[in-house]
Design goal:
Layout (H helix, E strand, L loop, with lengths): L1 H20 L26 E9 L2 E9 L9 E7 L9 H10 L4 E5 L17 H15 L5 E11 L1 H12 L5 E5 L4 H7 L9 H16 L6 E2 L6 H5 L4 H13 L9 E2 L3 H4 L15 E6 L5 H10 L6 E6 L11 H18 L1
Parallel strand pairs: 3-4, 3-5, 5-6, 6-9, 9-10
Antiparallel strand pairs: 1-2, 2-4, 7-8
Helix pairs in contact: 1-8, 3-4
């Protein structure tokens, strides 16, 4: 038993050291980017990042557009819309993949979701599926009108929760010619049933709490938030699931950003808990690539959605050997494999 405990302790220490060794770039990055190798200055002849804002349904959206080194607005480049994870912002993993794809010749856009990050909207941190799906469509609206972009060569990449919302957006929005997900997280199913069905016994209790929170908001009372408590490293180390344990270190330690938070309005559960990213998967008739780490405890969500994608003749499930869910966000080896796969996929279909 002592040897087992010692081995578990060593594994946890190794994991934490791995995360820290690939930590963010300088916190003083002028664009607020917190991923390794992030752009720190726009230089002619290199990949550049352009902070932009636009209005979507009355809400100001904050986004970053990445342009390739040879970008020329008189030409027509393929573009990729990138949807960030739940609680994430455009400066983290979405920005990393946006930059890597721009290095390969794509114009990319990563935007903060409505009500989140640097984007507008109140109550803050409202997290409703309809808004997240509309955010993806809004990115498509903006980037297809960007000078130098070929609107007929538009791809979509969704990461974690953004992956689930990307699947829903692609079911009906056929501007997206090729769809990819990385470490897809089915937000509604998890909010309803709990991760790996760990919350089935409390569904009705949580729905009652969400209903009461909505009633309080309607009466002009204070907004109630879920997941607002700060987690300590000691608490994280005792978590059963790699996703949440490693997610704590990624979001709160090595790749922390002041606009990134796990909290969301409790009333959002009224919409989240009836949502399932994997319904109507047969409506996707575009080429589909779904990627996940072979050791990801969230893989069951990718596997389930992929099996239901019966409407496309071009679909592929790609497992990144040895990677967990969060490690696909930052570990160079795993990111390189995912980007290489994305490049081949988008080159073929865009």
């Amino acid at each position: 038993m002592k040897n087992f405990i010692r081995a578990c302790s060593l594994t946890a220490t190794t994991m934490i050291s791995s995360i820290i060794s690939f930590a963010q770039t300088s916190p003083h990055n002028p664009f607020g980017l917190v991923y390794h190798g992030a752009i720190s200055a726009n230089i002619a002849g290199k990949v550049n990042v352009h902070p932009v804002t636009y209005t979507l349904n009355g809400i100001e959206i904050a986004a970053n557009v990445y342009t390739p080194a040879d970008f020329d607005p008189s030409r027509r480049f393929p573009a990729v819309v990138i949807a960030h994870p739940n609680g994430g912002v455009k400066e983290q993993v979405a920005g990393l993949y946006a930059q890597r794809l721009a290095e390969l010749g794509y114009v990319t856009i990563a935007a903060d979701a409505s009500y989140q990050g640097a984007s507008g909207g109140t109550p803050r941190n409202t997290d409703k599926p309809a808004s997240r799906i509309e955010d993806i469509r809004g990115m498509a609206d903006f980037i297809t009108q960007y000078k130098g972009v070929n609107p007929d060569s538009l791809g979509l990449l969704g990461i974690c929760g953004g992956g689930g919302y990307a699947l829903k957006a692609a079911q009906t929005d056929k501007r997206f010619k090729a769809i990819a997900t990385l470490s897809m997280f089915n937000s509604g199913v998890v909010r309803r049933n709990g991760f790996m069905n760990s919350g089935l016994s409390t569904i009705q209790q949580r729905l009652k709490q969400a209903s009461d929170a909505r009633a309080q908001e309607a009466a002009g009372g204070a907004i109630i938030y879920a997941n607002e408590t700060k987690t300590t490293d000691e608490q994280a180390d005792k978590m059963s699931f790699d996703l949440y344990r490693e997610g704590h270190y990624y979001y709160n330690r090595t790749h922390a950003h002041p606009n990134s938070t796990f909290r969301y309005t409790l009333s959002s559960l009224l919409d989240l808990m009836e949502f399932d990213a994997a319904t109507n998967m047969d409506l996707i008739n575009q080429p589909l690539l779904m990627m996940a780490g072979s050791k990801a405890d969230s893989y069951y969500m990718t596997d389930s959605a992929f099996a239901l994608a019966t409407g496309t003749k071009e679909k592929e499930l790609f497992l990144i050997p040895g990677a967990t869910h969060i490690q696909t966000y930052y570990v160079p080896e795993y990111v390189a494999q995912a980007v290489d796969k994305l490049n081949g996929f988008f080159k073929k279909f865009l």
